[in-house]
Structure formats: structure tokens, C-alpha cells
């Protein structure tokens, strides 16, 4: 919220100084503040979207690990090994791990733009 507060305080200052400045100067400052607010809103939406996408990818990764583990356990109990199913699980695991890593990098970049890095790391 620090950046949003800065935008608001800058807007208040601009209105106070409007009496002494030209209309064009006030208009340009207003436009600048509006553009900053719009960008922050867009960054916030992108941050939320990427966070949801990352959660979905991690859920898919978890299901792939579960399917792989189940197949391995069934093989341990003597069931025939379905190599095709195992290879499918491995491919899904690799795909979702790579996707999660990419999304985490993208999320970090959006986080830096949105907050300037002021959000504490999640535990």
C-alpha cells in the first residue's frame, strides 16, 4: 500500500499547488498519477492470476507424484508394471515442475514491479 499512498499524497499535493500552477501542468500531473494507478492495478491483477496459475500447476504436480507413487507401490506388491503409465506420470511430473519454476520466476518479477519487493516472503 506504500506506493498507493504515495500516489494519493502526490495527487493531494498537486491539487494544493493547482492555484499557483498552470492548468496544463495540473493536467499532466493528473495524467501521470492516473497512469501509475492504472499500472499498479494491472500489476496487481497479473500477480493474482499468476499466483492462481502456480497453485493449479502445483496441484497437478502433486497428482502426478501421487499417480507415480501408486503405480510404484502396486508394482512392489507384485502387480504388473505398466511402463506406459509410468512414463506418462514422469512426463507430467517433469512438465509441471518446469512450469512451476517458470511461473515462480514470472511471479517474482511481477511482485517486484507491483510492490517494489516490499511483500514479505511466504513461509
Brief digest:
The protein has 123 residues and is mainly α.
What does this structure look like?
- The protein is an all-alpha fold.
- 83% of the residues lie in helices and 0% in strands.
- The chain has helices at 2-16, 23-76, 83-115.
- Helix 1 (2-16) packs antiparallel against helix 2 (23-76) and helix 2 packs antiparallel against helix 3 (83-115).
- The longest helix is centred in the middle third of the chain and has 54 residues, at 23-76.
- It is rod-shaped and about 85 Å long.
What shape does the CA trace take? rod-shaped
Supply the helix-strand structural class: mainly alpha
- Mean pLDDT, to the nearest integer, reads 81
Number of helices: 3
Assembly annotation: single chain
State the share of residues found in helices, binned by percent: over 70%
Rg (CA only)? 25 Å
Percent strand equals under 5%
What is the β-strand count? 0
What is the element string, with H for helices and E for strands? Answer: HHH
Strand count, sense and closure of the main sheet? Answer: none
Which consecutive residue ranges, at least 5 long each, have pLDDT under 50?
none
Amino acid at each position: 500500500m506504500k506506493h498507493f499512498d504515495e500516489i494519493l499524497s502526490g495527487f493531494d499535493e498537486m491539487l494544493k499547488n493547482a492555484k499557483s500552477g498552470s492548468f496544463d501542468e495540473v493536467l499532466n500531473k493528473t495524467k501521470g498519477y492516473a497512469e501509475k494507478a492504472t499500472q499498479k492495478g494491472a500489476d496487481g491483477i497479473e500477480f493474482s492470476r499468476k499466483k492462481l496459475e502456480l497453485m493449479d500447476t502445483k496441484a497437478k504436480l502433486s497428482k502426478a507424484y501421487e499417480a507415480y507413487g501408486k503405480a510404484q507401490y502396486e508394482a512392489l506388491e507384485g502387480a504388473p508394471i505398466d511402463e506406459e503409465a509410468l512414463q506418462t506420470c514422469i512426463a507430467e511430473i517433469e512438465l509441471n515442475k518446469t512450469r512451476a519454476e517458470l511461473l515462480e520466476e514470472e511471479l517474482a518479477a511481477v511482485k517486484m514491479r507491483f510492490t517494489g519487493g516490499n511483500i514479505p516472503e511466504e513461509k
